[in-house]
Amino acid sequence: MLGCHFGKNFQVTMAGGSYQDGLSAIIQGVPAGMMFTEQEIYGDLMLRKPGADELSSPRKEPDLPVIYTGLNAADTIENAGNWNHTNGTPMTILIPNLDRHFIHIKQYQDTNRTPRPGHASYASFIKYGPDDDSIGAGIFSGRYTSAIVGAGFVAKKVLKALGIEVFSYVKEAAGVKCSEIDNKTIFEYTERYKQMRWDHDPFYQEVYVKGRIKPEMRYLEKMAIFAEIEKEIEAIRAKAPVMDPKAILEKYGVHHVINCPDIKAADAMIDACNRITKTGDSSGGIVEIVATGVPVGLGEPVFDKLDAQLGKMLGIGAVKGVEIGSGFAVKDMTGFESNDQMHNENGKVVFDSNNAGGITGGLTTGQDIIARLAVKPTPTIDRPQTTIDKYTKETTALAAITRRDPTIVARIWPVAENYTAMVLLDQMIAHMGYQQLRKAVSK
Fold first, then answer.
1. pLDDT tens for residues 257-285?
2. Are the C-beta atoms of 108 and 141 separated by less than 8 Å?
3. Can you state the angle between helices 409-441 and 38-48, rounded to 10 degrees?
4. Rounded Cα distance, 135 and 325, in Å
C-alpha cells in the first residue's frame, strides 16, 4: 500500500488499522535535544478519541501512546541530563488497539459482504481484493487519525518553541454556526477546554497523573501495564468525574462537550445534532484552524504552495472540502473587496483585512493563517440502506448500524490542528534552511 507517507523535511509514515494490533507513526525531522513524554502526547490523543461524550461512538479505545524510538534511554554520559531527549533518530509512536473484542469483529464479519454507503469499503475491496483489511474499515477508519494527532503533536511542540501557535475549534455543527470571535479569545478558550478535558479524563488521571505509566519504564514494562489496562477499561472509565455543565462553565469558562468558544451556539449545536441522531441519521459541520506567529514568506511556489499543502487535509477521513481565508466566498466579491490592503503603522506593515487567510502566492504574509474544513455527516447511520453484495454484485439491504459517531466534526478539530502543524513544520524547516543559506551567500 502506497500513500501513507507525508512530508519532505518533517516526514511521517503511518501504518496499522482499526482492528489490527494498533497504529504507528514513524517521524523523521525532529530536532535533537527536545523532551517528549507519553503523557503530553496522550493529552492531545484523548481529545479525538471516541466514547468521551454524547456525540461520540461507543467504542472505548483509550488511545494510550508508547514512544518506541527516538529518545535517549539514558544519559549519554554520566550526569549529562539528556535522558528522554530526542536524539535525531526517527521517532516512533505506537498506539495499541485495546478495545478490540471478537463480538465487535463478528459484527463486521456479518456485514462485510455488503459495503456501507459513504465508506471506502466497496472501492477498497475492488482495489485490494478479498484480503482487504475490512474489519472496522482498516486504515480507512477514522482510527488512523490518532496517528496523525500523535505525529502532529510533535510538530506542534517544535513550532511552539519557534513562537508559532496552532489551534482549532468547531465553527459549525448540524447547521448551527459559531459567532465571529477574535483569534486571541479563541486560543485562550481552546487552552481552557483542553485543560478541562485533561482534568476529567479518567485515563489521563489514572495512567499518567498517578504514575501507572512512567517515562523511565522500558517498552516491555509498559506493555505489561497495557495488558492490565485492557481488562480494566470499564473500571477506569467508571472513575470519570461527572461532567456537570454548570460547574465546568463556572470553573473553566467552556462548554462541557463541544470545543466551540460560543457557549450559546455550542448548546444549540448539541441540540441540533441530537435531534438528527434521534432519527437514526447523522450530521456534519465545519472545523476552523488558526496559526499565529508564522513568519512572512513561509511556503514554496507552484506545487508546494502553503495553501496547496494545507489542501492535503482532504486526506483526513470525512473531510470533503478545504478553504483558506474567505474561501469560496470570494466568488461573490469584487477585486477591491477581496484584496487585503496594507498600510504602515510605526514602521510595521498592517493589513486591513485577511480574506487571503494569511497566504498569497503560496507564501505567508505574516497574518494569522486561517483554514476551514468541511466535514461530511458520519456515513455509518442507524437507518436501513440499499447496497450490493461485494461478491455477487446483487442489490441487497444493509441493516441499521448502532456502533457509530452521531457526528464526526466534534472529534476532527484536534486532527486538523495537528495536521496543520505537520504542514507548517515541514515548510518551516525548508524556509529556515533557505534563509540561512541566502544570508550566508549574500555576505
1. 999 999 999 999 999 999 999 999 999 99
2. no
3. 130
4. 38
Q: Distance (Å, rounded) from C-alpha 43 to C-alpha 203? A: 10
Rg (the chain; Cα; Å)? 22
Does pLDDT of 239 surpass 70? yes
Calpha distance 235→238 (Å, rounded):
5
Structural domain including 300 reads: 5-441
DSSP 217-234: S-HHHHHHHHHHHHHSHH
Residues 6+ apart with CB under 8 A from 232: none
Please check whether residue 84 is in contact with residue 39, taking contact to mean a CB–CB distance below 8 angstroms: no
Phi/psi for 416 (5° steps) reads -60, -40
Return the C-alpha torsion angle 417, 423, 425, 426, nearest 10.
160
Q: In this structure, are residues 138 and 17 in contact, taking their beta carbons and an 8 Å threshold? A: yes
- CA-CA distance, 49 to 146, in Å (whole number)? 8
In contact, 374 and 319? CB cutoff 8 Å: yes
Contact 340, 354 (CB under 8 A): yes
pLDDT value at residue 111 = 72
pLDDT greater than 60 at residue 107: yes
3-state secondary structure of 377: coil
Q: Count other C-beta atoms under 10 Å from residue 375's C-beta.
A: 29
Q: Which three cell numbers stand for residue 366?
A: 505574516
In the chain, the amino acid numbered 267 is D
Helix (H, G, I), strand (E, B) or coil at 4: coil
Amino acid at 306: L
Q: How far apart are CA 215 and CA 65, in angstroms?
A: 12
Q: Are 387 and 380 in contact (CB under 8 A)?
A: no
- Strand intervals (E) in 48-118: 66-69, 91-96
3-state class (DSSP) for residue 324: strand
Amino acid making up residue 254: V
Three-state DSSP at 5 gives strand
- Give whole-number Cα distances, 89 to 27, 31, 243, in Å: 9, 9, 41
For residues 372 and 322, is the Cβ–Cβ distance under 8 A?
Answer: yes
Q: Most distant CA pair in the chain: distance in Å?
A: 73
Q: What is the dihedral of CA 55, 59, 61, 63, to 10 degrees?
A: -40
- CATH number assigned to the domain comprising residue 38: 3.60.150.10
Cα separation, 419 vs 422, whole angstroms: 5
Predicted TM-score (pTM) above 0.85: yes
- Count structural domains, the chain: 1
Q: Where are the alpha helices (DSSP H) in 284-395?
A: 306-310, 335-338
